[in-house]
Design brief:
By secondary structure, the protein is mainly beta. 0% of the residues lie in helices and 46% in strands. Strands 2, 3, 5, 8, 9, 11, 12, 13, 14 and 15 form a ten-stranded antiparallel beta sheet that branches. The chain is globular, with a radius of gyration of 17 Å.
Length: 180
């Protein structure tokens, strides 16, 4: 399953609306997802090291190679395009300058340079979106009021949909603009 949306709005009341959420293959509106969540990330990403490998750190921790990443311990990150580690994680205290450490089940993986790590902005993690009845793929949720956007800065907003055993993510670049 692949999803897409061309309409994403965040109002001054912190209401996030994803409109016309569709299955990219069939073109049908997605009106009966088991869950839909949005995660807001910084406008830049970092790429896991080419030919680097996931490392079993023990105790349910996995190390991923990311040279000079600059992301603080305790911050949330969104990982995309891996075979085994796509999702949102909090960085463990054992994270170092060149390795991020996450809580996950270890599965061997060698990275090819297409895997990206995005830093989640404070209070922008996995906002639950609810279906608006009798709509064409419209989902809404409320962002934390402490979430602050900077005008004219673009952010990535990931919309993750779960339907049965399928999970799909849409990455949308969104620019914060204000109108009166």
């Amino acid at each position: 399953m692949a999803i897409s949306t061309n309409k994403l709005l965040i109002g001054s009341d912190n209401l996030i609306t994803v409109d016309e959420l569709k299955d990219s293959i069939t073109g049908n509106y997605e009106n009966n997802a088991d869950s839909v969540k949005a995660t807001v990330c910084e406008p830049t990403s970092k790429t896991l090291n080419v030919s680097g490998v996931a490392v079993n750190k023990g105790g349910g921790l996995v190390g991923l190679p990311l040279t000079s990443h600059g992301i603080a311990v305790g911050k949330y990150v969104m990982i995309q395009e891996t075979k085994e580690y796509d999702g949102v994680y909090v960085l463990d205290a054992s994270t170092s300058t060149d390795e991020i450490v996450i809580t996950a089940t270890y599965v061997a993986e060698t990275f090819v340079g297409m895997e990206n790590v995005y830093e989640v902005i404070d209070n922008g993690n996995e906002v639950i979106l609810s279906y608006v009845a009798a709509s064409n793929g419209k989902y809404q949720g409320i962002l934390e009021d402490t979430l602050k956007f900077i005008e004219d800065v673009s952010y990535y907003i990931f919309v993750v949909i779960v339907k049965g055993s399928s999970k799909s993510t849409s990455r949308n670049k969104w620019k914060a603009t204000y109108s009166s």
